[in-house]
Amino acid sequence: MLTCKQLVACSSDYLDGQLTLGERLMTRQHLLFCRNCRRFIKQLRLAQATLKALPPAPVEGAEALAARLAAERRATR
Amino acid sequence: MTADEQRLLDRLLAGEQRAFAELVQTCQGAMRAVAYAIVGERGADEVVQDAWLAAVRGLAGFQRRSSLKTWLLTITANTAKTRYRQDRREVLLDDLPAPHGSIDDARFASDGHWLLAPSAWHEDSPEALLSQEQLRECLEHTLLSLSQLQSSVLLLRERQGLELVEICNLLDLSLSNVRVLLHRARLKVFATLEHFEDTGQC
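Above: the input entities. Below: the structure tokens describing the complete assembly.
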């Protein structure tokens, strides 16, 4: 049986599908019985989703860059 | 390559400025992350500029086997690697302290059980969390505290949705190193969100 500490140590691999079948089963089994670790995984997923939802930093000078690239492309045609 | 990408590529080949603007919007962030991981803050913008120019010059030869983004990221990584052959092996797994720490050994008892279990967060959606301006700033502060590679790997995985193996190939890192970098970065982000949800401040 995994300990909570071991579960946290392999939590990223669990989310990324990097565990072997055996490791995955052990992780699932631990989660079945451990409320704290279920919460941890749930909130780790929420942290992932939150990062993804952060508004993108505006690209400075995007229009000028696009104009330059388009001109470059037309010149090389 | 998707049908949408095919159409975009045709417009790019025709030299349409709007099409380039769209491409810049969707790819610049990921390109910057790749450049930053390899050359650091100082050279990153220049590498991205050079990569764009190299891409435009090679556009006609683009094979359409991969997505445009994958192709652009490969060009960016190659541009960065050719220009800066610095040895970054020893800084590879640098783990810098984060503002709110991580989920470290102190959280566990000697038998491996939680000593201080994760608290339940008040919000359960990204939108609700991010609606708090202070939390957004707090999160950005934590992201800035990450090492060059940790922050790039996190961004490429979580925000750009790259596969781990793509990240390995672009940055010349082993899979186990990418996994370690990603895990450490995620735990720091987790600790920041937990801290904010517990205390209501950064």
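Note for the figure: Chain B touches chain A through 56 residues (CB under 8 Å).
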